[in-house]
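ingest -> fold -> write
write: protein_1
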Amino acid sequence: MATKNGLGRVPAIPMANRHMSYWDMFATWVGANANNGTWYIGGVIAACGFMTASTALIISGIVSYLLLAAASFMGYKTGLTAMTLTRASFGLRGSLLPSVINMVQFIGWAAVNTFIAATSMSYLFHDIFGWPVYGKPGGTLGLVVGIVVMSIFHLLSISLGQRSVQLIERVGIVLVVIFVVWETIVVFQTVSFHDIMSWQPPHNLKMTSGAAIDVLAAFNLAWVTAASDFSRFTGVKKNATHAAFLGANVGLFWFAFIGLIATIGTAITLNHFDPNNSDPSTIASKLGLGFLAMIVIILTSTTANAVNLMSAGSALTNMTQRISLTVSLWIVTLIATAVTFLPIFVASFLDVFTVFLDGIGMVLGPEIGIFLVDFFWLRRQRYQIDDFTKVKGQYWYQGGVNWLAILTWAVSVACYVGLKHVPMIADTIGATFVVIIISMVLYGVLMKVTQKEQ
């Protein structure tokens, strides 16, 4: 079903046209997290030490993906994309804000995964052609060629839309299983689990638990804003909620733990810890995993970016309301290719990645708090689909913008910035989840008070 009634088009998927199974949904979310970026995140939080990093990983994963399950339910219930759904809380025109945020962050994640995969390709080019690996003099050539090749893969992967995503995830998850088992065996043949648990990073590089939670939250919450883009293709509630929650957590714990123990294991083996060397390619090379490991890293990048690019394309379609999803996918893929080159010219990849994560955590949390409270509390899980395109309808607010949602978002972002400078919060539980609660309460109260006054 697609309705058009004054402003844009609402591509609601009717129940009869939904064929995504429990396994498809589970595999989609396992594949979304079982990739290079998750491995890299595990390597980054290794700076906490194993126990602190593991605790932060489990807590952040469970909380974040409960929110994912809730957002996924919204897609199942309505058949609408994630950014279309934000029209109800932010207004038909106000939804431009979350759409821009989503497009930027998923283009960013696609660039992150592409960069890591291109680094792996530089190792392959070294083995095949003798080119220097990235990070060594002359190694930029292999990286640039890798970025171009990966971008071609991504264009091919998204060319068939949702069907291609399902196919890629089904193939990718098999490769991931093989690779993770192999990686785990190699790590524990090199270093004992006791040594990994006992290892502590140098004091000057140590990360606090709060910083780790914020890093992980920024990574995990990105998927919450894309949940409906996939759950709208299933007609069974548990596929949207249970499968999404379990799949995302399995992928997260699986690959982040591999990244964590591989990074610590490498630090112990070399007697040196450098967070800049936490990417899968460098670790795999130092552990002697060789050619096949690089191939798997490249392929798993494609599985993750199939989801990233689909979500970015959906956001762009909601913003423009004139171009098709296929055209949007091509546009965001080409933009992501350009963004991938930034770390070559701006700073180290880790520096760019850290700034990117902090920005995501700052803007995403409030957005999520607002649209979840609007659907589950204020609207009681009932949205009027026809009004999603109706000028002067109930989601029009003032000139198409719900200024209370915008105000809540702005105040919450300011709270995030402030809390990052409060050690009692920033160093222990982090600012991200606190700010989500603040946005939920503030938006709910403001909307209730306004409704009573009217």
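write: protein_2
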Amino acid sequence: MNIAALFLTGAGTGLLAGGTTCAAVQLGLLTGAVGGTGPGAARPVRAVSAFLGAKLGAHAVLGALLGVAGGAVQPGPRVRGALLAAAALTLALFALDLLGFGPARRLLRRGGAPACEAPPPKARTGGRPVVLGAATVLVPCGLTLSAELLAVTSRSALGGAAVMTGFVLGTAPLFGLIGVTVGRSLALLRGRLTALLAAGLLAAAGWTLLSGLRLGGWLPAGGGTAAADSARSVRTDASGTQVVTLWALDRGYRPAVVTARAGVRTVLVLRTRGTRGHTRAFTIPSRGEDVILPVDGERRIDLGTPRPGRLRYVCASGHYPGAILFR
């Protein structure tokens, strides 16, 4: 695939689906970038521009590294889970700042200036949007991982950079709209309805934290399974291998929980049909394994001979979990 095709593929992925999924994962970083920009109409725009510029640069560098070095530079599921948890805490910190919580305000502003007061000119944006924009490379969504896999397969620094540059540019319109809207809302509200906005940010923080815990495999086991689902999804082939079949749909995996036999060689088959969402990036946290699924088709994962227990899986952004119960 030539450079132009790689760029257009990345841009198409970002424009058609990547913006919404990445915005959900990286909302905390984006909110932090535009927070405290002051009431001027142009200031949120400058902050968002700096954020997106840094994001573009960081992802272009990552794409080049992936093209040259392959997947070795991609952090594993548990590392990404920890980064999502950190992003959630960052988002909660900004929410507490809006509510006037003293420690959060002092930590963010280093001077305890009230939220309703504009910070000094040099402190309005500073380097924070740049730092947070570059940090998005550490908190990828599921479709970012798909773009990164394409960068790996390009086998060139230029091709990898083209894919990731196109992807970020594709997501930029939605990120820009969200960022400017949030920034101007923070400036215009200036004490009015801030409690409502802070509640929304805290809810987003909770969702992001839950996603990180799922991705890291740190949530306690729970839930059961339907016998009918297991009967349809688990079979034994002629060689005696146990085959567990799951469908990756745009809104989750079906069935989400199945029961299989422990102590026998097992192969997991993941099937897709027109799937373009988070679930194409399939993660098994305990194995540190990420698998990018095709839009249409299937992938097979050799699970070896599992011991009794619960093998948890989740989409690579931590939104859609499931499990195989080996008994």
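write: annotation protein_2
The first strand starts at residue 234 and ends at 236.
The first helix runs from residue 3 to 34.
pipeline exit 0
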